[in-house]
Design brief:
It is a single chain. The protein has one helix and five strands. By secondary structure, the chain is mostly beta strands. The protein has a domain of 91 residues. It has a five-stranded mixed barrel with strand order 1-2-3-5-4. A hairpin with a 5-residue loop joins strand 2 and strand 3. The longest helix is centred in the middle third of the chain and has 13 residues. The protein is globular, with a radius of gyration of 16 Å.
Length: 136
């Protein structure tokens, strides 16, 4: 198996920077159904299922706008990037009894300014293996 980190982005002027690597057709679609809350990371995060049955990790915090921009910049430079979208507001059905995310989702299950990252089963994530620092 050959691992690839970068590819020639070719004609970057043709890329849709507002939609990013997923394009407009891959954006999360309401209604959103609460699946679970995550207790790791520096910001509140939950997993939801969208109206198309896709799983998303939803995060809040000061960096959600800049993170979406950074993903698009890396993608435009030819690096593989995860599919992310900034969602200005919405509702997550069933989001009750939250801990860290209770400040981000109100009693009517509404939220504002969140980053949705597609939880693609084809993308291997190393959440359980180690954090930002490890001994090699």
């Amino acid at each position: 198996m050959r691992h690839v980190l970068w590819r020639d982005p070719a004609m970057i002027e043709t890329l849709d920077m507002s939609a990013g690597p997923g394009g407009t057709g891959a954006a999360p679609v309401a209604p959103f159904r609460f699946l679970e809350e995550h207790d790791g990371g520096s910001q509140p995060c939950v997993s939801v299922e969208d109206g198309r049955g896709r799983r998303w990790r939803v995060k809040w915090g000061e960096e959600v706008r800049s993170e979406n921009f950074a993903v698009r910049l890396a993608w435009a430079c030819g690096y593989f990037a995860e599919t992310t979208y900034f969602v200005g507001e919405g509702t997550i059905d069933g989001a009750k009894d939250l801990t860290r995310a209770r400040t981000c989702i109100d009693d009517q299950c509404r939220f504002v300014e969140a980053r949705f990252e597609l939880d693609d089963p084809a993308v291997k994530k190393l959440f359980e293996e180690h954090g930002w620092a490890w001994n090699d």
